[in-house]
């Protein structure tokens, strides 16, 4: 599957569905959250280290391609490395989004721009502009190893970063889960209860009897 096809299909599912399809996928620490609500992004990672210095982010913006997700490792440093100007440039260049294991600023501006931006939070204090670390190197973000070209998939629930083949392997299951959940929601909107739309009674009965079981949907998706 091409990267373009993978990204296109990911944007039609939720991160939670992908994580249900493969519960071993690497998920970033929950402290890294969407600063702009109601967004979804997917794309290949363009990695950079920015430790209290935002020149590396500006350098990355000069080289990142349309559709990339900028993945910034601050490595525990506390100064903002992304703000309104850099995010405007990321939008202008067609980036899919930005993930910062660190801090941003200009929150109102970021929300106006609307580009998906994920970070640990905001701080008004920026750092220096002199660092020249190499770009496109493996980094650690949110407790997850991220390599250039890994697929970054994020929405309001969180962010997954993994090699394309792992994401592609989980995608059909995520799509099936999404179809089933939409069918359940339609049935519930029509007045049916969630217990009758799953095997809940049989499931808990087997568990209480000491057996093995799994919760299943009972809908025509």
Question: Can you walk me through this structure?
Answer:
The protein has 221 residues and is α/β, with parallel strands linked by helices. Helix content is 34%, strand content 22%. It is built from 7 helices and 12 strands. A 7-stranded mixed sheet has the order 1-7-5-3-2-11-12. Strand 9 and strand 10 form a beta hairpin. Helix 1 packs parallel to helix 6 and helix 2 crosses helix 6. The mean pLDDT is 95.
How much is the radius of gyration in Å?
20 Å
- Beta-strand fraction estimate: 15-25%
Helix content: 25-40%
Structural class: alpha/beta
Low-confidence sequence ranges:
none
Q: How many helical stretches?
A: 7
How are the strands ordered across the major sheet?
1-7-5-3-2-11-12
Order of helical and strand elements: HHEEHEEHEEHEEEEEEHH
Q: Could you tell me the mean pLDDT?
A: 95
Number of E-state strands: 12
């Amino acid at each position: 599957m091409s990267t373009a096809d993978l990204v296109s299909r990911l944007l039609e599912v939720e991160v939670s569905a992908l994580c249900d399809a493969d519960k071993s996928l690497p998920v970033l620490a929950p402290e890294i959250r969407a600063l702009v609500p109601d967004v979804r992004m997917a794309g290949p990672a363009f990695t950079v280290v920015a430790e209290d210095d935002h020149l590396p982010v500006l350098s990355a913006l000069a080289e990142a391609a349309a559709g990339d997700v900028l993945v910034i490792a601050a490595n525990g440093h506390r100064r903002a490395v992304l703000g309104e100007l850099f995010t405007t440039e990321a939008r202008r260049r067609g980036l899919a989004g930005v993930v910062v294991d660190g801090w941003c600023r200009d929150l109102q501006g970021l929300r106006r721009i609307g580009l998906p931006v994920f970070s640990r939070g905001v701080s008004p204090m920026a750092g220096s502009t002199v660092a020249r670390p190499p770009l496109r190197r493996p980094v650690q973000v949110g407790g997850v190893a991220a390599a250039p070209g890994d697929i970054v998939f994020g929405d309001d629930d969180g962010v997954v970063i993994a090699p394309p083949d792992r994401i592609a392997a989980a995608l059909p299951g995520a799509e099936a889960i999404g179809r089933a959940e939409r069918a359940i929601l339609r049935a519930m909107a029509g007045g049916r209860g969630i217990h009758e739309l799953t095997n809940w009674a049989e499931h808990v009965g087997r568990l209480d009897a000491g057996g093995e079981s799994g919760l299943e949907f009972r809908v025509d998706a």
